[in-house]
Task: structure prediction
Amino acid sequence: MATKASRSAARLMMAPAVILLLGWMLVPLTMTIWFSFRSYLPLRGGDLGAAGFDNYVRFISSSAFWPSIQTTLILVGSVLVITVVFGTLLALLLDQPMWGQGVVRILVIAPFFVMPTVSALVWKNMFMDPTNGLFAHLWRFFGAEPVSWLSDASLPSIVMIVSWQWLPFATLILLTAVQSLDGEQLEAAEMDGATKLKRFFFIILPHLSRAITIVILIQTIFLLSIFAEIFVTTGGAFGTRTLTYLIFQRVLESQNIGLGSAGGVYAIILANIVAIFLMRIVGKNLDN
Amino acid sequence: MGRITLDKITKKFGDVEVIPPLDLTIEDGEFVVFVGPSGCGKSTLLRLIAGLEDVSGGEIRIDGSDATMVPPAKRGLAMVFQSYALYPHMSVRKNIAFPLRMAGMSPAEQDRRITAAADVLNLTDYLDRRPGQLSGGQRQRVAIGRAIVREPAAFLFDEPLSNLDAALRVGMRLEISELHKRLQTTMIYVTHDQVEAMTMADKIVVLRAGLIEQVGSPLELYRAPRNLFVAGFIGSPKMNLIDGAAADKHDCKTIGIRPEHISVSPESGDWKGTVGVSEHLGSDTFFHVTCEGIAAPLTVRVGGEVDVKYGDTIWLRPGPEQIHRFDQNGLRIA
Result:
């Protein structure tokens, strides 16, 4: 991009992509904001005129609102903790030289390729079913009463399913980070008298901090909009209604597009609050 | 104290024997250089001494006690790595403090030692910087600082200067030599550069394929190389090795003559030759001379500036006392 001509040519050529992306984002956003100020009930007469802030007040004062925020944060937080902790341990394990390393790595990555709906169904029917599930058989083998996972421990069950899906992602990113660590640093620390545990906390973990930050940021974006796993397993019952799911219910089950749109705007605000906190806490790792 | 004895140690990686049984004694306070071409096992040998690799057989004794199975941290040795291996997320101060912190030393004592080390290595102004903000030479000094503060029985250096540019290398060479004179601690230094070996060592160990070819002071190796390999490896430019008729005259398979031991004359001498490329360094001039009856061109070193042009005919005469003779097996004939 040395000359003036090449710079304006570059702008011209980037324009279609920029305009397309901007339109892709702006049109739905504007429509959401527009509908959130309308009383729009498709099955009860369609657009019934301006509603002011009624939708916003109704959405936030509903008894389901604050529990859904809480559920969302618990779900996102638990999945993040589980995937980062186990992802780090798995990455360290997979970095060890062992027989069949390539196959094992592919197997570990595999869950990430399974569609969310499919994996939720597999977990629901094959593992967590209280009569025929593998867990039920396992419990009975040890003489215990099978747990009906999705009704008695519904949120932990969904955390488990989602963690299983996202663990490969965390492992993969952290594995590449582990592999980029200079072996001589670990040897130097060993000569300096650091035990294995101290080497992990003083050398490996600081080296991984940047990768962990990236894992947390990317996962948060996707986890805030978790939907299929809840839809397929509990349908939002037993305290598994996240904000995303609440909006879905308002729009499709109650057929109230105005109310759902107001919820959508709250979801945008929540995502931004979470993002600001995250950037404050972990974002500084990306600086240097 | 830092007397290190290697007793018939061997190292195998799978079926490949990298180091056949090897004996070596390193006296307390000695500056020993392991030198050899790449892949000769010199770094492996250093790592065996450090404890970063397990020996396949034999015994390592440090100050008389068996250290073969002792973990690296407990051997009382400090190592400076080729890549420096500084911890990038810690300041220089924390890098240097790391071994002391791991040993659980009191903060006051840590501070005292860090200040002393920083003073010796001119690092006082950089203590709060990160390694990423330092130049190559400064990083090198931090790595040495991290080794010094432990007050080890011996220092191990693994090609520490190979990442520095030529000018800095000469400077650091002097600094390390001076450090050795000041601390009087055993140092083991691995390099593939024979100039580093010649300039720094009290004792050079020349290695080839895991075997010790010769051990001796730099000048012993220069004056009396035990075999053809050492003869060709030690000294710069390399010794001229001549087979054939010229060697037969001296009753041997091969004769060797160093470039600086050949005198040049325009009229008379033992070998008549044609001057090829000449390299003028100012202080010295190197000629490459193709001589009649000698297969490979000879390198000749003449002090100062000499007016000889490409294609000139000159006569060469090797110093009679300075001819090295080798037999069929490449061994020196005394």
Observations:
- The interface with chain B takes residues 182, 184-185, 187-194, 198, 202-203, 206-207, 209, 288 of chain A (CB under 8 Å).
- The first strand of chain A starts at residue 38 and ends at 41.
- The longest helix of chain A spans residues 4-36.
